Amino acid sequence: MSESPDTRSLVSASSQLNLMEIDTIDDKEFDIPQVDTPPTLESILNEPEEEEEPFILEDTSLMNTESIDAHSCETSSLASSDSGDRTHLKRKRKTLELHTAIHGSVLRHSILKGISAQIVSAADKVDAGLPTAVVNLNQALRLCLGSTATGAEYGAVSALSINHDCTRLLCGFAKGQITMWDLANGKLLRTITDANPPGSAILHVKFTDDPTLAVCNDSGGSVFELAFRRVMGMRTCDSRCLFSGSKGEVCNVEPLHTPPDLKDHPITQYSLLAMASLTKILVIGLKPSLKVWMTFPYGKADPSSIPQLAWQFVPVQKAVNPVLAFCRGVTVHFLLVKKDDSGTIHVIKQRQLQLDCDIISLSWIDSRTLVAVDSGEKLRVVDRPSQEELETIDMAEVQLVYNSSHFKSLATGGNVSQALALVGEKACYQSVCSYAGQIVILGTKSAHVMTLRSWRERVDFLLKQERFVEALSLAWSFHEGTAKAVLGLFGDPAKRKGVVADKMVEILFQYVEHSLKKCPEHGKIQVMEQHFLDVVPVVVDYCLLLQRTDLLFSQLYGRLGENCVARGVFLESLEPYIVSERLGCLNAAVMKDLLAHLQDNNMMDSIGNCLVHMDITSLDIQQVVQMCWTNQLYDAMIYVFNRGINDYINPMEKLFQVITPPLRQGRALTDEQVVMGNKLLVYISCCLAGRAYPLGDIPEDLVSQVKNQVFEFLIGVHSADAGPDEDMYPYIRTLLHFDTREFLNVLALTFEDFKNDKQALEYQQRIVDILLKVMVENSDFTPSQVGCLFTFLARQLAKPDNTLFVNRKLFDQVLEFLCCPDDDSRHTERQQVLLELLQAGGVVQFDEGRLLRLAEKAEFYQICEFLYEQKHQYDKIIDCYLRDPLRKGEVFNYIHNLLSIPGYSSEEKQCVWNKALQHIQELVTLDPAKSADLVVVHFPEEVGPIITQLQVGSCPLSVCRHLGPHPQALLKLSPDLNELHISLMCRFAPRQLTDFLKSSQEYRLEEAIQITKQNQLHEATAYLLEKKGDAHGAFQVLLKTLKVKLCALTEGGGAQQRSGEECEGGAVLRRVEEGLRDIIALCHRSSQSLNPQQREVLWFPLLEAMMSPQKLLKGPDARPTSEALKELTMNVLNRMSSFIPLPAIIQRILQDPVYGKGKLAEIQGLILGMLETFNYEQTLLETTTSLLNHDLHWSLSHLRAVVSKGLHPRQDQCNICLQQYKRRHDSPEQIIVFSCGHLYHCHCLQRKGRSQMDPRLFQAWSCYKCTSSQGGRGGDRGALETGRGRNTSLAQVILGCKSFVHPRVPHTHTDKHTHAHKKVFVETTLDPQQSQSWDQLRSLYRGPSRLAILSEISHCHGNEKSGLLNPAQPGTGSIFHSENFQLKLSPPPLVEE
């Protein structure tokens, strides 16, 4: 019986336990249940599984894949023993298996039933204390170390460690003690009580590779080294602190353990130890001396996340070195430790692994695979290189044991930090451990083992669940070497592939048998077909991947053929593999069955697709050809002829027989015939090029033969079954009629391959002669077809290695045929054909003079352009463009490009320039805008002559209109031309004249005014007069125009208007409004710079003009017109009230006959409106004055209160000489107190240079101490700048401060009489600091300034009057839009005596 490597490792490790017979264990003391015959491992593995049992017990010590029980159950999640919801378990398992379908089940989960039963018994039946047990391979209790008394004294066991040779056991306890036991005889060797500070629990105790050296970690966060000695028969232990918890609490330690086969690794001599504190990772070496190799911080992490450490030797770049995996939270980091040739140790950070869960346990199961347990108690298997999660198993039902009580040190009073206690909530270090590819997990009532499955187990696991497709996919990944966590595949790649291939063949047979067994015997045929459609393609695909077509078409096809539905699905499934050329060779029986099945089901397209990709040598050629021809499978027919019997001519004959009759009779081809013709052209092209149709290549030994056969066939004079009326060369004639251009392209491609082949060159000349004979001597070809032939010939003749001979007379005949002036049909087609012929090199075949004459006569202007360009006669090309009705618009681009682009000589450009100037009138007629662009860019000096040349019609206007406001601003027209432009616009575009006058500045005013007057364009005349400065003249012109419009309005409004005249009357009124708007705007603009008398000269005539027509409107019919005029009059009054005094306006109104007579009611509204406006303005003025007075009074009162405030010095001594001013009696001295509280003697400040005499006899002082502390700028004037705070003496403050400058007196306060005579009143101004104080005082007033309100009022009424009759509606955007706005009068200012 063979064993796996992992099995051997565990057995060898366990066999080193030299277990000896010891005294009988007192069963009564521990109340252990009696077991008559302890179960063996084999009996446990062979136990039959019950339906309701969720787990299978397997001992992981033996990994023999051949002895695995076929009934072993795989648990994707652990079910609770007391859970009765079995359907929930199945649903959960199914979901997880679907999730891990790619990798299958990676881990085998086993429960150690014997150990689990003893755990439950000890917990439920006896009060056995807290002993630690060692169990043998049969899960029978072998040793019981300690006693209940020991447990009561030391507390619970909190940590365990066995050395590498399994002879010693270290136990750490909750109360801080450590014991060492001999596993051979169960004797207590050492009890260590002083290794760590008292009152702290042992969290970790672990042996290193050195059996005399161990490390422990306590709940205080400290790490200690334990060195075991035996001196004079006495066993001792020396303790050394490696890391103190005061520097950061360590909660996990992990020494590097070296496998037996790597004992000579250079890293082992350093005895590495990884420690994880709450903030960082430390890697230290214990030998030969203590040394810290590196520290690595976690970065940001959840405070409740627990640090994890795991060492593993990993092959990296052809070397095996230790890798430390560590994490705290969701990110796993990797550190590679290696020693280079120079002996230097390097710790290299590797690519990190990002998970989506908080990790509470991390272990290596092999060098590529990690097993992590998250905070949700889900076990995750992760492949490190690809960072792919292979499997997830729910471990919630295991009831994982946590070490929280030890981390909180509850047994010693809980004297731990809050951070460590928080981390301990998730601590399970002693409950999950890994060894030799196994993960052992301790639950509260059971012990579990997770081991990697072998590759066979993973495949068989899927097969047991009838997941054949997934099993095949997983097996193929093993075959290709892409699977993860592979176990059990050994040897070289070829041997491994062979083993996996045999397993896949076995799976394929099982899959086929299962599909036949599960096929529904009754029901719809579609259901049965769908059943096999899910199976057969998978079987075919994997047989092809394994290159086992023999298996596919012999055994598997034979087995599937027993079911007629499966047989049909199998045959139909072969098509995509045949078409993709994955399956090229079928045996005769399968090919025969395939064609028969497809033909019976009328799947002819599938037959065609398959035939052209298969080896058909074993078929009945005649039968297949007949079938293809009958079902129009032309590609397949050609392929069968070519590959089956090497016949390349018969397919062409059959196709010609179909398309020749309708072409000969002049009938249109059907779609099917067109398809056949196109296939024929492609087939001929392939044969002449040496390629097989429809794919592949002709065998090299047949290429030359096929070409000769095809040429001989095409140039045949008559067909095999020719009739008496058949024309010569029927095949070439047919192809020319079918598609001349494509057939000639086929010949051109063929001729490209002819180089030194003499026979091929003879065929080439012969075909050309036949083409000329067929097309030139017959009139049934169109000019386009004839042109295609000669274009083809011209291209062939233009080649440098040309060997063809063509009579030039034929080209002359073609030229006369194409340039026939009497034939107007197909003019564009004939010109295009001739142009292509010339561009292909045919120009050398013609006499250019004759060709040019014929082209001009036939109006082939593109041909003329081509010939002129060859001769560099570019000026004549302009005539060609202008004569060609289809290309006239392109002449502008041609002229511009030729004159702008370099590469042409100056003589050529001059000729084009002269020709363009000669045709300028025609160009302007064609497009004035583009003509103007040409003139601006290329003819700026010829504008005058051009305008003179265009003095007919509106052509000059068109050019000038685009020259004047030209966007490029490259041309400045002379005043004469601008005036000519104005004159032309007066005649042809009067509505655009005013806008032009506003945009242009190049004309003379007097001449322009005369022109507009002559043409009676009053609006333009008024604009020019105003621009000249004659506002009155402009006013008179507009007033005259307005009077004319008013006269028309009164004449129309005074009579009875009919319905047809109402629209005309409205148009007249709108013209009056427009004219009035223009003249009011003129008066408003002009009144700004006129005196009152001049303003009246403008406004009163306008008012009279508006008021005088109203007396002519009488009767009820004229009332609408009269009301409209009165409204317009009110508008005039509103606008003129800003410039004319109201009394003058009222006097003029009362003098008017319309308003001066009759009752006062007629002008009551007007008078009341003017009075309301007066009242509004009076109220506004009074309010403004009140606000100004109030603001001024408030500001002065506030400033007075500030400057009247007394100053209190901080101390009674001078801040320079440090002497109290009252103790100096030698001479009267003045003192200066600043607003900052500092006090100085006057002469001390003068000595320090802190005074400066103002030009207005005002002495300025600055605080010495404050200015020194702000940069030490001494008495610089910059100390008085804005932002200095309160460093300036109050003697300098004009309105906001005052100074106390008085002679020294024995009291701190001076009376009025003492300093009254010292006051000096001088004219002062605000310095920058005082200006800042003033701004701060103003900012104390919250809300918008009332002065700002008044400014808005003045702006609103200055720019946009509300009107005499509507003073309550100010301009748009005013503050008066607020409904709550009120002007409140302030009280009169306070006056103080």
Automatic annotation (TrEMBL):
PROSITE patterns in alphabetical order: WD_REPEATS_2, ZF_RING_2
GO terms for MF: zinc ion binding
InterPro entries for this protein: Vps41/Vps8, Vps8_central_dom, WD40/YVTN_repeat-like_dom_sf, WD40_repeat_dom_sf, WD40_rpt, Znf_RING, Znf_RING/FYVE/PHD, Znf_RING_Vps8
Start and end residues of each RING-type domain: 1214-1267
Keywords for this protein: Metal-binding, WD repeat, Zinc, Zinc-finger
GO biological process: endosomal vesicle fusion; protein targeting to vacuole
Segments annotated as WD repeats: 150-191
GO cellular component terms given for this protein: CORVET complex; early endosome; HOPS complex; late endosome
Residues spanning the membrane: none
Region (Disordered) location: 28-52
Family: Belongs to the VPS8 family.
The name this protein goes by in its record: RING-type domain-containing protein
Source organism of the structure: Esox lucius (Northern pike)
Gene behind this protein: VPS8
